[in-house]
Amino acid sequence: MRVIKADEIISAVAKLCVDANRNLGSDVYHTLRRAAETEESPIGRSVLEKIVENADIAREKQMPICQDTGMAVFFVDMGNEVLIEGMTLEEAVNEGVRRGYTEGYLRKSVVSDPLRRVNTGDNTPAVVHLTQVHGDKLTITIAPKGFGSENMSGIKMLKPSDGEDGVKDFVVETADKGGSNPCPPIVVGVGIGGTMEKAAILAKKALTLPLDSHNPDPYYAAMEDELLERINRLGIGPQGLGGRITALKVNILTFPTHIAGLPVAVNISCHVTRHKTAVL
Questions:
Q1: For residue 91, which phi and psi values (nearest 5 degrees)?
Q2: pLDDT of residue 271
Q3: SS3 of 4, please?
């Protein structure tokens, strides 16, 4: 059994919060640069160049890439030989978020109740998705999620008879309805299968996958490419000003499901698709 002290988790999480909000991942950054080179619309190309410039300034000046520094979402893989000493995992993660968002001067956007809407003042609580795996390591991935794009996401309980075409149409319709609201070019996470909530978690997790990767199953890899092409044919373009680059990538994750169902979730992310990982 390996003991990891809560203070180690707190420190790692605090650094992840700041790093994710200031330094755009290389996969997203290089995809944006390529998009700026291939966009045919002069306005769209100019917008993409400004987006890349903004990411450069954020990294150089160590300032947030976007004013919406998001609700802190975590995917944690915890080895079955790990024992956390001093706090529970969620307590340590929340303390790390509290410190990271306060000491890093990141905007605090979380309210303590969805209807009474009093700000918690420290961007806690975080949303933590925990998976137990084999081994003695703790892998922590943060995905700060802005809500301009989160609000454009959707879930639908399709019938099995809706099949592949039903899934594809729902993904494209969701992107189309979002229009300029999620600050395109977007990244689209798709979760298929499981139950309603499982599909939603899969879609969120899909946004943490590298943009230069594909689903390992050729069937779903081909679907990712087709959906990206269809979404880019919508003509929404960078920041909704027209062009061929409406989306940067579509990532699909799947899970077995019930014989009577076909849950599909679509999680939209803006061009600032933030995700960073630390391994303890």
A1: -65, -45
A2: 96
A3: strand
